[in-house]
Amino acid sequence: MPDRPKVCVIDDEREVCDLIRLMLESRQFACCIAHDGESGLACIRATLPVLVVLDMKMPKMNGYQLLMELRKDETTKNIPAMVLTGLTQETGRSDDEWRRSIGADAFMTKPIDPDTFLEKVAELTKREVASGE
Known about the structure:
It is built from five helices and five strands; from the N terminus they run E-H-E-H-E-H-E-H-E-H. By secondary structure, the chain is α/β, with parallel strands linked by helices. Strands 2-1-3-4-5 form a five-stranded parallel beta sheet, with helices on both faces. Strand 3, helix 3 (about 65-70) and strand 4 (about 80-85) form a beta-alpha-beta unit. The relative contact order is 0.17. The mean pLDDT is about 85.
């Protein structure tokens, strides 16, 4: 059986990580989970996933700092990154404005819609996300 494509999920909220892991594993992805930016960066460098899903507000290294580290490293600079955050709710900026300003490939505000999330995963990984049913 071939290896399942890996997605690195980095969020300090364990419930969010658990939910995303369930959605992705039911669609034949493998997950690497980290709960702070430093551990997440180490996970990314160790596994070279097909996608990184990360929060912006995290301990040790925030999502913006992590993205900057990813983008300046030759081995990780082309890995797609999807940011999930509640941060924009009070700023008035659109998701697309935030995505462009931080260098992410996709940006979604929490709480996420599972169908929209999985559609975006399929788009970013260029893989059909089969139904988990």
